[in-house]
Specification:
The chain is an alpha/beta fold. The protein contains 14 helices and nine strands. Strand 5, helix 10 and strand 6 form a beta-alpha-beta unit.
Length: 363
């Protein structure tokens, strides 16, 4: 008589994936949001060759090149796909431009329920094939021990750009829709949930090792509005992802809601593996509130990288000491790299994270 024993999934070897799943690591892994960007002179050279930002995103060879630049230069523990969150609304049929000095712009923003008829459900293998080609190009060149993170914007964050027509400080149009026409807004969010699920699953199928949902503008919402219009759509995305590989290994999901330190317990209901923190939430407090069931990512203030090397090291030490020897921490910034940061400050940060985390774990 044959006995069948359950086979445990293989434990990942990379520091980033181990920390994402709360497993033991010898030192804290580090990657940086916007680690590929304008602060790097080699990035600026490639962008010049591409012509403009959107053309760079749509050129798989060049997008792969800039994805790899910070990993090669700084020895970071993960790469993140170079792209933009707004390629999803563009693939749904909206006309996207990046205006010099103004940022992203949609010429025909959505204003009413009937406008949703203008949107299609994109097939990632067709309308977003250049992103998937970039993933394949990165995988061919990325060292096997370095994981690749894919990403999308959250439905709420994508909706803010689609309704406002671009970046906003007051979010007047989408908040008007939220209160006066929730049927329109929820219809838009539902379409975005479906599109993002397909998009992230395609990224996973083509080789990313983890995915992050960027909820950049969740913090402009009150508690009940955050739960209804931001968190619940993200939870539906997480539930729809193919998170198990054929070999049984897990694809971690990171949810990063900027400005939402007050909503951590709500975010914990999303089904994610990792909760990203901006710099306004004390790391030890977040761990205390959430318990050990979640990995935490963050959360150094990016502006610290304007400071002296000594101050950078002291801030890293303070942050890591606050977290202590517990498992489940990925070091990152509380938001993205600023474009005018001196790239020579990054090795100081990386070295400090590795030295201090090894010291703390050795105690």
């Amino acid at each position: 008589m044959n006995s069948h024993r359950a086979v445990s999934p293989p434990e990942p070897q990379s520091l980033f994936l181990r920390a994402s799943l709360g497993l033991e690591v010898e030192q804290t892994p580090i990657w940086l949001m916007r680690q590929a960007g304008r602060y790097l002179p080699e990035y600026r050279e490639v962008r010049k060759k591409a012509g403009d930002f959107l053309s760079l995103c749509k050129n798989p060879d060049l997008a792969a090149q800039v994805t790899l630049q910070p990993v090669e230069r700084f020895g970071l523990d993960a790469a993140i796909l170079f792209s933009d969150i707004l390629v999803v609304p563009e693939a749904m049929g909206m006309v996207l431009q990046f205006l010099e000095g103004e940022g992203p712009h949609f010429s025909k923003p959505l204003t009413r329920l009937s406008d949703l008829d203008r949107l299609n459900l994109p097939d990632p293998e067709v309308q977003l094939d250049y992103v998937l080609a970039t993933i394949r190009a990165i995988r061919r060149q990325l060292p096997a021990h370095i994981p690749l993170i894919g990403f999308s914007g959250s439905p709420w964050t994508l909706a803010t750009y689609m309704v406002e027509g671009g970046s906003s400080k007051k979010f007047t149009q989408i908040k008007t829709a939220l209160y006066n026409d929730p049927v329109f807004l929820e219809g838009l969010l539902e379409r975005l949930v479906t599109a993002v699920v397909h998009y992230l699953n395609a990224q996973i199928a083509h080789g990313v090792d983890a995915v992050q949902i960027f909820d950049t503008w969740g913090g402009v919402l009150g508690p009940e509005e955050y739960r209804r219009f931001s968190l619940e759509p993200m939870a539906r995305i997480v539930a729809g992802l193919n998170r198990q590989r054929p070999d049984g290994s897990r694809v971690p999901v990171i949810v990063f809601s900027k400005g939402c330190g007050g909503y951590l317990e709500t975010i914990a209901t999303s089904g994610c593996d990792v909760i990203g923190l901006d710099w306004t939430t004390p790391l030890a407090q977040a761990r205390s509130r959430l318990g050990p069931g979640f990995a935490l990512q963050g959360n150094l203030d990016p502006a610290i990288l304007y400071a002296s090397p000594q101050r950078i090291r002291s801030e890293v030490r303070r942050l890591l000491e606050a977290f202590g020897k517990q498992n489940g921490h990925i070091f990152n910034l509380g938001h993205g790299m600023e474009p005018n940061i001196d790239p020579n400050k990054v090795p100081v940060l990386v070295e400090a994270v590795r030295e201090e985390s090894r010291r703390i774990r050795a105690r």
